[in-house]
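CORE FACILITY INTAKE
Project code: CF-77B
Contact: R.S. (postdoc)
Sample description: multi-component assembly, two entities in total
Requested service: structural model of the whole complex
Turnaround: standard
Below are the sequence entries exactly as provided by the requester. Do not edit them.
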Amino acid sequence: MSDILLLLIVLGITFMTGTIIEKKHFESIKKREIALIKKPIINFGAKTWHTNRKIRKIELVTGECVISGDYFKNFVAGLKNFFGGRLTTFESVLDRGRREAILRMREKARGANFIINTRIESVMINDTYGQESVPQCAIIAYGTAITYE
Amino acid sequence: MNKNLEEKYLSVIEDNVNVGSSNALNEFFILIAGIAVIFFLLYMFADAIGSFFIDRMSNETQMKIENAFSFGIKPQVSTKNENIIKLENIRDKIVPLDKNLQGKSKFPIYEYPEKQINAFITPNGNIYFTQGLLKEIKDEEILTFVMAHELGHYAHRDHLKSMSRQIIVALVTSIFASGNNDIDLTIGSISDLNGLTYSRKQEKEADRYANKIVYKLYGNNKGAVEFFKLLEKKEKSPEFLQYFSTHPSTRQRLNLINRNK
């Protein structure tokens, strides 16, 4: 009986902390996105890109983010495995990770006019099938920042 | 930049289509409820199957299974003090009353070194009485009730039934959970609660059986009533805790005994 009590306590605590952390993270993402809304403009997937203006600097910019769900989210996702369906608890985690990575990349390209050829990749860092594996995801956004003369 | 475009970007930031709108807590409760219902039905199914086959099992098969389970257990030598001899006399009175008890185990009786008031029967028919019980209770009618209760478990083949239930449920759990600790723990806890429900049912049946035996031997069930009153005096746990325990609450058992007069 003590097992289930401990589990309920841990679930309750992680649900509360996870909700608070997620809310704060979303708030900060929104604030930064609104601040960066004008510059630099990202351009996904332009294989050929032409300009007549003189270019001062071409630079690789990257933004990385490693993100994990809290215990409660993982638990619900584990139960969801039983029935199948969308893992809605992980959707918000992935969304946060992707937006954070892009934001970091854009913040790194400060002063540039454009980021072209932006790509987003996701990687699992640890051993996925290991016993001690932590459910996490690393998201890397990278592109070429271009600064005009 | 175009004003319209800027507003569009802002609305995209505000309205996030990539995140599901459902509440995680709601989802959690729905999932738990779903699993609870599934395992409730599974327990009913397992209980029905187990009872069906075990009630129809022949005595030879029962003995075979019991011997297989108790393989390697050395027969203990019981110290023959006056308590044990008294209990053996009671046992010899009860066994001829029921066909289900005859021709199987010899029901050896042992003392168990513990202070709590308790008695139990092992799958191969060894009956243990705790030293606390033997010290506290000297009345023959009460001891008859306790003995009949334990023999009732054996006569109903409760040990085999609970084992069959657990085997079926464990099999299904291991298939579903397949190494996922979270699911294993959740299902385990739900299964435990389900299992306890059936355990309490079995205890009630054994009480009813013991009540009948006491009536046959003495013509009244004073011993049973006295036993539960004694237990009630010792008990301090509140009523609702019975849902987490293997036995029904003492008050419920007392009511059951009184109703079956």
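Facility notes:
- Chain B touches chain A through 29 residues (CB under 8 Å).
- Residues 23-259 of chain B form one domain.
Invoice: internal transfer
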